[in-house]
Design brief:
With about 140 residues, this protein is an alpha+beta fold. It is built from 5 helices and 6 strands.
Length: about 140
């Protein structure tokens, strides 16, 4: 894939396993509870086989709201989201690392290049001491 193709969705030939298996996105509860549209979304590396990696938000989430992921981000079928908002249909074909936003009153989606996608913190301890390994 060339640099010119970076702003295009993947074709079926370029698609990787990270985009083929999943069908779920994590979507802010505000989309459903407050009936607000998705205005910000990004795709991270999927967390499990059913995950597409898409995270969808209204733009009104507070940092405190986002800290409680288990309560406030709902696993939703991507097809349901594209049925609710057909403008998402072409965007969900993009791969991990893609970020999109649409401002209230703006026409269409804009690609975002200056947002750092959050990554889970994983504690890893590395050792070469055989006695540290327990069976």
């Amino acid at each position: 894939m060339s640099l010119e193709d970076i702003d295009k969705p993947l074709s079926k030939d370029d698609e990787t396993a990270q985009t083929k298996n999943g069908f779920l996105a994590l979507v802010s509860k505000l989309v459903f509870d407050e009936k607000l549209p998705v205005r910000f979304m990004y795709k991270t590396v999927p967390a499990h086989l059913n995950d597409t990696g898409w995270r969808m938000f209204t733009g009104y989430e507070t940092p405190e709201f986002l800290e409680d992921e288990v309560t406030n981000l709902l696993p939703v079928d991507v097809k349901k989201m594209t049925n609710l908002d057909p403008s998402l249909s072409t965007l969900v074909d993009y791969n991990a690392g893609t970020v999109w936003e649409r401002a209230p009153g703006a026409e269409g989606w804009q690609r975002v290049y200056d947002f750092k996608i959050p990554a889970d913190q994983v504690e890893v301890e590395i050792t070469n001491d055989v006695d540290d390994f327990k069976h």
